[in-house]
Amino acid sequence: MLPYGKIQAFLYILFSLTLQNPRGCAIIIHIPLSKGKIMYTKNDIFAQLDAMHAPKGSVVMMHTSLRLVGEIEGGAQGLLDAMIEYFTADGGLFCVPTHTWSEIGEDKITLDFLNPESCLGTFSDIAAKDPRGVRSVNPTHSIVVFGDRAAAEEFVKDDEFVKTSTAPESCYGKIIERGGYILLVGVAHNRNTVLHCAAEMLKLPNRMADKPRPTTIRMQDGTVIDREITLYYTDYSPDICWRFPKYETAFRYHGCITDGFIGDAPTQLCSAAKMKDTIALIWERSGGEDPLAVEDPIPQAWYCRK
To answer: Global pTM?
Structure first.
């Protein structure tokens, strides 16, 4: 049987219903309304973002599944161009994760600025190669930031010194602290990297490895830098992010999420700060019991108003 978190992540991309699972926990899932029938233009994307009241002057990071987005005018590059134009119009910053954690290992360059690719797929690869962006020097969880060049460079500068993959002082922490948003396009919360940072900011137990891992960064000028970084770890799950979808019902209860579509893809616009606050409430109500330690849904008493 698949774990609860994986089931919710999978179902999310199939339907547009609110179901009640056998344990009594609401699972919010969606279905595209026009799969395969439309070539979406930039103005179509803008209209969909406007319908979600997406902010133009904030910080927004987008995780996406291009396959679920469907046909976009200009393809993946057209989608990236549209997102950059929309979210940076009023001084905002648009961010795309360009992780390279899969390249940790002996005789490997973990983050290579001379070969700007990621382990997250086409959209992230295109963003990593786009000269308009500024890529952070985070060896495993880099991001590319678009917008005003000076503002983007300031935003990523502290990633050069992080000791953990999503440290509170990293770009992920800044998204939370600055009231930014996470845009989940055709993907579920198992892709919501900022939740790792929220756990670090809240100092949640059983979340980080005991020892750092060696990584290597090759800079644009060819300089090679060796750095150690501490990764995520729990003693009950090989990948804790697959249980992040368990938080979604609580996130919705506390108004963290606005639903919509990008192309054909069901999309969640999520307040990073509200998600962090909701996780803090769950841990406070649980009396320190880890809400992700078991595959069961999170008890409603841990997040519902009394």
So the answer is: 0.89
